[in-house]
């Protein structure tokens, strides 16, 4: 007679954990996964209010995006944003975290000041910087004129390269505090005995940074790089408020908005948003597999 194998019964703590996690799972499913699946499904149809019907077109929307020169230009612009923003946030965030880690008195107050830009809503942050960049009464022109670096006020967004750099600075200014917090937490987990032993062995500060600090904060660095990249890929507020839908500074997410809500090509906008999500996930996966694992285990 075959023995009936009963599945193991969940303990009281396991049932409590599942009960507490269920509301979060339902909310995530309703607000994230269902809209994602709906977007994936709808991107396979032609959904344009100005044209009758919603025929199934398969991957045609994606193919059209690959042939669209405006979309390709937006991808190039976004890649520049990612490179500039990630570099500024990582280098600046690491420097600030190293400095804060050495400060013993008043660190919490300094950390509170550093976090302030991150607490500002993106729109408010962009409006503040729009005043700074204003060609008539902006602080940037005023400082450069006072220092004798420029002779006349500059309209900064008349130049594509300057516009890309300035938008990246605004975005990095808002997101750098998150990098600082992540890296500071990683730095505080390194035992002080390792640095003391390295000093006794005659290691220079640069050698201690390369041989101790960077390898041991690799998990935090991978997280910081991932979040910086994902937020930079999805940059919208700063570029839109500072320069609108200008092709010179148009990111992919702005292109999604233009396609879906200005050109009324909803299916094209949904397809482009799906591609943006895939790129974000792919880059994050690269960071996790290369930066985290190789740096940690080599």
What does this structure look like?
Helices cover 74% and strands 0% of the residues. The chain is built from 13 helices and no strands. Helix 4 (107-119) runs antiparallel to helix 7 (160-188), helix 7 (160-188) runs antiparallel to helix 10 (218-233) and helix 7 packs antiparallel against helix 11. The model has no long low-confidence stretch (mean pLDDT 87). It has 298 residues and is mainly α. The chain has helices spanning 12-42, 60-67, 69-102, 107-119, 122-133, 139-146, 160-188, 192-200, 205-216, 218-233, 237-243, 252-262, 266-297.
Q: Biggest sheet: strands, sense, closure?
A: none
Number of strands: 0
Instruction: Please tally the helical runs, counting DSSP H or I stretches of 4 or more residues.
Output: 13
The helix-strand sequence is HHHHHHHHHHHHH
- Report Rg: 24 Å
Low-pLDDT segments:
none
Tell me the β content. Answer: under 5%
SS class: mainly alpha
Cα distance, first to last residue? Answer: 55 Å
Summed over residues and divided by their number, the pLDDT gives a mean of: 87
Helix content: over 70%
| Spatial shape | globular
